[in-house]
Every structure is written in structure tokens, then in C-alpha cells.
Amino acid sequence: xxxxxxxxxxxxxxxxxxxxxxxxxxxxxxxxxxxxxxxxxxxxxxxxxxxxxxxxxxxxxxxxxxxxxxxxxxxxxxxxxxxxxxxxxxxxxxxxxxxxxxxxxxxxxxxxxxxxxxxxxxxxxxxxxxxxxxxxxxxxxxxxxxxxxxxxxxxxxxxxxxxxxxxxxxxxxxxxxxxxxxxxxxxxxxxxxxxxxxxxxxxxxxxxx
Length: 209
Description:
Blueprint: H1 11-19, E1 24-27, E2 32-35, H2 41-51, E3 61-63, H3 78-87, E4 92-97, E5 112-117, H4 121-130, E6 134-135, E7 137-138, H5 155-159, E8 178-184, E9 187-192, H6 198-203, E10 207-208
Parallel strand pairs: 3-5, 4-8, 9-10
Antiparallel strand pairs: 1-2, 2-7, 3-6, 4-5, 8-9
């Protein structure tokens, strides 16, 4: 899908829109994402609707700093910190216990949320400028391919949002983030294979169950 005609926005404008409850498309390290504040129920509902995604499926979240992780979870095992030390910023998403501040709809009623510290400079800066972790799900209609160029975003999806933050560097494509859950004091289980290999996790001294 080419030739999308829509005004893009600057970082501060985008951050202000997110603080005001808007939904936006923005670049990440792999693909364009569509997202909003991780704490805004109405905006989260709009993300599900924009993607035509069942609201029983949890939405992943990105943070712009390690400190923003504390906004999402009150449970910090040493293994979460060890994973973050080795793989953040990077394409490793960690499933953590959601705090009471996280809307249940975001977690698909599971009480857990997948979070990563994005290595993309624009996505990270957007989290920090907005002051909150951001929903970060691929900016495509469910079942359609993800995209690496703002001009290739589906017009229907974009019309359901407040606009596009399209600043370099462009997403690099490739594999999505690897998703892990903590299953022991020194062990994780891979729930979704991705950019971080099991061998990389094992090499950090963490058992892959």
C-alpha cells in the first residue's frame, strides 16, 4: 500500500497527543507500531479496534528507560533485572506481573504484561516525552503484514488513529522481539521465538526451560 497522504508530526506534538489520550503510529526497531498510553483504557480500546484485534489478546508494551518498568509492575525478581542487564535496550520482551495501575484489557485479563526497553531512539524518546510506557503492537490490520515505511501503512488503520510519527531511522524489519516468562529463580521459558536466540539467553547464564 503506497502513497499514503497524511501529515506526520514532530516528537513533542506526538507526545502531547499521547498524553491527551490519542492513538498514534510510530517506528520501532523492527516495524511500525500503533499504540497509546499503557494506562488509558479508552485509547487501548481504540488500538484493538484499529487493528481489528480481539480484545482477549494481550497487547505488548515498550518503555524508554528501566525506571519506567516500575510503572508497570510491583514485582521485580532478580532475574528480570538480570535479563534487562544483558538484553535491554533490545528485542527481548519479558512477561511481568502487571500492577493495579495497568488496565485489565491491556493484559487480556491475564494479569501479566509483556514489556521491553526498545532500542529504537525515536520510540524510546517518545515514551520518555509522553512520560508513560506505550502500547506497541505492529501497525497493521490483524492478519496483514507489518510494514517498515510510514507510506506503506494501511490507510484504514491510520484513519482510526491520530496520525503518524515518522522520524528516522526507519524500522529495520526482521524478526519480532523474543518473549520470555520467568519460570524459576534462574530460568525462563520462551513463549515466542524472535530476534534474541535461546543460545544468547543461555550464554548469559540463564537457564532456558
